[in-house]
Amino acid sequence: MKFRVSFTNTPLNCKGRNNQWTSSLRRFFDRLKRCVFMAINDHIHLRCAMLHNLEMTSLITSLLFASTLADSSEDRKEFNFTSYDENFAKRIMLPVSAAAYAKDAHAIETCLKNAIGNVTDVYQYSYPCQNGQCSGYVAKLPEYGAIIIGFRGTQTVNQLLQQGIDGIFKSWSRWDYGGNVLFYFHDVFHTLWGKIENHFYNYVHQQPGWDVWISGHSLGGALATLATSYLVEEYKLEPEKVKLVTFGQPRVGNRVFAERFDARNLYAYRLVHARDLVPGILKTGYWHQGGEVIDSSLSCFQL
């Protein structure tokens, strides 16, 4: 069963004597470690692209199965964007998010073609970050009249710990379009977008009437949120043309950022597993944006 709830933003108790601070910090990192293992357990099928040529993860198997449904009238029906559309989230945005874990543009293309259908002009950029790879891509879905953008999620414990450390010890990064965001998210987004933007710019001018669909898992969800804000504010894209769906996304910025984002009335939803701690790891001053869909069943990301 799915329903929407609002997170309470209870700050960490970081005041008091040194031993209280140490205890609070220890509990925080213990929570982070538990979060890592639970996130891996709950989202293991999202590692679409830890595949080699002859190896399949569970998500690749699911995407291959989904390809048998790609031509059905049910999956080609017009999506309902007046509210959360589960068919759109699972049939389109989950593969868009999962494909970001692919090792290169060719693997991304294969993943998306098997799951969704015809995909063209795939461009990917990745770079090393905290013993993992931060990565994003842009592509076209001609049959849906959409440009898609996907961002890879957290891959290593070091990446997750760095996000938590930045959330405690580093100052905010100012977001030019309202509010402040986590330094780590801001830095990774601008590094990736600096390489992807030229391709997106060309695509959006080649197809000015197309939608822009953006997705990501975990860290990728935070980057997708920043990309959505950037495109609506900087490119002046029509809000009704932009769709954001993320999976297991942490908080991105402060209250001003979240309120500015929500004021745009975008189609923006965060899918969260009821047992996943990642969406709640940043509390002190951080706020969630967008509508939240929680699934308390075994896995809300099953195809």
UniProtKB/TrEMBL annotation:
Q: Which domain of life is it from?
A: Eukaryota
Where in the numbering of this chain does the Fungal lipase-type domain appear? Answer: 149-281
UniProt GO BP:
lipid metabolic process
SUPFAM superfamilies listed in its UniProt record: alpha/beta-Hydrolases
Q: Which PANTHER family match?
A: PROTEIN CBG11750-RELATED
- What is the protein's given name? Fungal lipase-type domain-containing protein
